[in-house]
Amino acid sequence: MYKAQTIQQHFQVSYQYPVIFSRNIFNPENEELIGILRHGSAKAVLVIETAIRECHPGILREINNYFKVHGLHCEVLVIPGGEAIKNEPAYIEEVLTFIHEHRIDRHSYLIAVGGGALLDAVGYAAAIAHRGIRLIRVPTTVLSQNDSGVGVKNSVNHFGKKNFLGTFSPPYAVINDAVFLESLDDRNWRSGIAEAVKVALIKDKVFFDWISANVEALNNRDMTLMEQLVFRCAELHIEHIGTAGDPFEKGSSRPLDFGHWAAHKLECLSGYQLLHGEAVAIGIALDTVYSRLTGRLNAMEVFRVLDCLKALGFEIFHPMLLEEHSLEIHPQLFRGLEEFREHLGGELTIMLLEEIGKGEEVQEMSHTILSEAVQYLLKSSSVFNDNPILIQQSL
Amino acid sequence: MYKAQTIQQHFQVSYQYPVIFSRNIFNPENEELIGILRHGSAKAVLVIETAIRECHPGILREINNYFKVHGLHCEVLVIPGGEAIKNEPAYIEEVLTFIHEHRIDRHSYLIAVGGGALLDAVGYAAAIAHRGIRLIRVPTTVLSQNDSGVGVKNSVNHFGKKNFLGTFSPPYAVINDAVFLESLDDRNWRSGIAEAVKVALIKDKVFFDWISANVEALNNRDMTLMEQLVFRCAELHIEHIGTAGDPFEKGSSRPLDFGHWAAHKLECLSGYQLLHGEAVAIGIALDTVYSRLTGRLNAMEVFRVLDCLKALGFEIFHPMLLEEHSLEIHPQLFRGLEEFREHLGGELTIMLLEEIGKGEEVQEMSHTILSEAVQYLLKSSSVFNDNPILIQQSL
Fold first, then answer.
1. For chain B, what is the domain count?
2. Pick among B10, B13, B32, B349 to test the A interface (most A CBs inside 10 A)
3. Average pLDDT in the A291-320 region?
4. For A122-180, what is each residue's pLDDT tens digit?
5. Which residues in chain A have Cβ-Cβ distances shorter than 8 Å to B343?
6. Which residue from A348, A382, B56, B307 puts its CA 20 to 30 A from A4's CA?
């Protein structure tokens, strides 16, 4: 046999980016954005979500004025956000054309202003153009400011699979502007809080206690509390990505994805009628009850979690959890476990709760116990109390 | 003004992969490939270039037998290579569909067998599916075995721009099988040698001397010498990527791209009739003469470089170098400098030769001196001697 020779390649790449928490970032006196742009060739284009322009009628004028005052030119593209931009390849092509036509290179900037879906999709275009141009994310929702927008991923949907296409590409910078949160409707305001509950439950009991104690003020849209919530939640996510040793998910574990296997599937099964955070709240509820049914957590802790979610205004049950005319978990939802495994590959790894503030990973989930957990959620939910047919069905 | 807070994210990611030099890798007794597959979930699919199947009629049977002997199943997709696969998005969609349908996840393998263009395009699909599945490259040409196939990039063309879309995504492993080189036609055999001349000129005078001394044997297709050439050239590229500090090209410098600004543009201007290596040979000749005209290199060194290229059978002149009815550099070619700059962004950075074996970067190129360099190449080339009209034009 021919004797093979091998050269072993190995190197390290350092990544760093600031996550800035500010207000009114397009006010000319605010120098956060311009401070970043001055590092490079200063050429910049901006992509903004249609809904943001509609909620903030003066924003395009304000943006243009900002760049003018600072002596820079900035072209703007307005494009829809939400799951639509992730489902429709034509939008990605539109962003790529924008990058191409304005001759944005690896030392120029794409500033993306919008919710998590827009940032995912525009970030994907930025990551593949010229093998990666500089992306400045300006997340405009609670969810994107405290979770997805501060992370290292981007993606679009393909073949009907959520996030089938994407890359791991850290942004150049993230700027969270709290003012955008003021114009969110109640559903979107609430939705992002689910990720704060999630990360508190697996990492920080003090933070969970704080959320529980402040439910009413959060529901009354106290901005100071919301800014604190966003900051702590973002900080926990950033810390995890930076220190847990697997920022680009080479392994099979997704410790930040507590409650997410069911959430991803429910979003899809609801035809994206459920917001991500609403689906995550149900996913958290399901895996919390499952944790208890498999000997983790105590009963009081389960009540605390479910009560907190309900007090925040989340539903903890959805009809797609149960198979029709049955008390078993919906077969398509159950299949979500395998899809969740497949996305990372390797062994199935699901985060459960050992106690509030402490997660524990397991390698399998029981169909029977999941069905029991779903039934428990049905009985604990407002849906149950309002619907005699469901009561009858569950007996 | 609102006081902003900042969280600074920073982390490092380690990359490593083996580059294996072997023979007959689909012979069941050769354990290189199977040794790699055993690290994962062992699910694998293979994409192979149409031309390889045509040159090696038994190869699909051999591949199927290889996996069967080792107790594995492996689906195969046959697809065209060359610039066609990089220009046509439908081929990327075909590879993505193949990945999707066979449920390849991040712990499964995509084995890509073909030349540089196929590896670029299939590698791109592998990099964006599930944010990156494991790619094993099996390069089949001199060029891909000694240069592109051992590196960290992938790409496709878009908006008529070469490599407009792509990512930096190190492969899981590279296996160079020397047997594939035996079936290359003379043009493709020769083409890859241009990258060895290139890297020798900027980094390793001993290697350049070795190539010059072995031109005749290489032209006579001595396999032992070619394997040595491929190994040393690959080694120099791997070493540079691993140790020069900028594997993902965050800066403006592309030290390995000596001769490439003109080569990229010439490939395109020739409608891809010029092979990459053929264009690189002309680009090397141009920047070598330019180096001399700007006070670098001595005249004897210029003769050595041009003689080596010509002895290997390369043309060192192409009609697209000169503007029609003029002795000035072709304006479209000159514009290639700006496109080269734009791809990386930042300041223009071009590698020239200080002496054989030692490169030197400059930040500008003179239109006048480039025109002189092109005229010099015209006069030094066989095209000139065979074409009285060109002689007349050049006087």
1. 2
2. B13
3. 96
4. 999 999 999 999 999 999 999 999 999 999 999 999 998 889 999 999 999 999 999 99
5. 105-106, 130
6. B56
Flag whether pLDDT at B310 surpasses 70: yes
The model's pTM is 0.93
User: Burial letters for A152-181: b for 16+ Cβ neighbours within 10 Å, e otherwise?
Assistant: bbbbbbbeebbbbbbbbbbbbbbbbbbbbb
Q: Which domain holds residue B150?
A: 19-183
CATH number of the domain that residue A208 is part of? 1.20.1090.10
Q: For residues A336 and B54, give the distance between their C-alpha atoms in angstroms, rounded to a whole number.
A: 42
For residues A247 and A171, the answer to whether their CB atoms sit within 8 Å is no
Residues of B in contact with A164 (CB under 8 A): 100, 129-130
From B133, B155, B183, the end of a domain falls on B183
Q: Please name the residue of chain B whose CA is at the shortest distance from the CA of residue A162.
A: B130
Task: Please report the ipTM that was assigned to this predicted complex.
Answer: 0.93
Residue that the structure tokens 């919710």 belong to: A115
Residue B262 in tokens: 């003109």
Number of H helices, E strands in chain B: 20, 10
Percent of the residues in chain B that have a pLDDT greater than 70, as a whole number: 95
H/E segment holding residue B239: helix B223-243
Q: Are residues B210 and B177 in the same domain?
A: no
User: Does residue A5 belong to any structural domain of this protein?
Assistant: no
Q: B287 lies in a domain?
A: yes
Query: Is the Cβ of B102 closer than 8 Å to some Cβ of chain A?
Result: no
Question: How far apart (Å, rounded) are the C-alpha atoms in residues A175 and B333?
Answer: 41
In terms of domains, do A101 and A226 share one? Answer: no
